[in-house]
Amino acid sequence: MRLKDLPADAQPREKLLARGAAALSDTELLALLLRTGTEGRGVLQMAQEVLAEFDGVAGLLHAGPDDLKRVKGLGGTAKRAQLVAVLELARRAMAQQLQRTEVFASPEAVKNYLQLHLAHRPYEVFAALFLDAQNRLIVLEELFRGTLTQTSVYPREVVVKALHHHAAAVVLSHNHPSGTVQPSRADEALTQALKAALALVDVRVLDHVIVAPGQALSMAEKGLL
Predict the structure, then answer these.
(1) How many whole angstroms separate alpha carbon 77 and alpha carbon 67?
(2) Integer Cα distance of 171 and 205 in angstroms
């Protein structure tokens, strides 16, 4: 069934305007973004299939443009561009929140922000949130990229970046493309090495967050700092 064939009060756009976005299901919200389906498949059905493909909204938000391209009906540029734009808006909204408040006033926002940036990458990425003296976000920088299993991280370069941004503290982060967020011994050793190097210039390491699609682990919360 096409959206225009639904009763007026059941059409997602009219329902949103009359009752608010919270009244819509995930499928209906996604259908509004997609706007049209494909031949023989209405947009609501397409939205359902997309969400099923990525295990829901969280998985979809962590999908990259190449992931979307593999889904039937998302091979064209228009629909993929719309979804990627929404993802980028979500990242920017979270960044603004972290720039205005102390990051640990909302630890879940920090995890979600890092997941949106790093979790979908097919290769390992090491990044850092550089923070001011009030623990508010200055900038997120991706510092190193590696293979699927290993990243070479140079403490000296992290120190240089921290000084460049006049950071008082950092939150380290990297992704595990394997899907598990359990820290390895190498992760723990790297964290301690960076903590020691940054301490020499009076920059504190507040946390090291490991992310994967749908998951995030705080080494600080696990007592590993």
Answers:
(1) 13
(2) 6
Q: CA-CA distances (angstroms) from residue 161 to 88, 100, 167, 197?
A: 24, 22, 9, 12
Whole-number Å distance between alpha carbons of 30 and 47: 6
Tokens of 146: 């590696």
Main-chain dihedrals φ then ψ at residue 144, nearest 5 degrees: -145, 145
38 has which bridge partners? Answer: 41
Do residues 209 and 117 make contact, with C-beta atoms less than 8 angstroms apart? no
Superfamily of domain 103-218: Cytidine Deaminase, domain 2 (3.40.140.10)
**Long-range contacts made by residues 39-46, C-beta under 8 angstroms, separation at least 24?**
41/73, 42/1, 42/2, 42/3, 43/2, 43/3, 44/1, 44/3, 46/73
What are the sequence ranges of the domains in the chain? Answer: 8-89, 103-218
Rg of the chain over all Cα atoms, to the nearest angstrom: 20
Contact 58, 37 (CB under 8 A): no
**Stated pTM of the model:** 0.72
* Whether the Cβ atoms of residue 80 and residue 69 lie closer than 8 Å to each other: yes
Per-residue tens of pLDDT for the chain, all 225 residues: 455 555 444 577 788 888 887 888 888 888 888 888 777 778 888 888 888 888 787 777 767 777 888 777 776 777 788 888 887 887 788 778 777 877 777 788 888 889 888 887 888 999 999 999 999 999 999 999 886 555 688 899 999 999 999 999 999 999 998 888 999 998 999 999 999 999 999 999 999 999 998 889 999 999 998
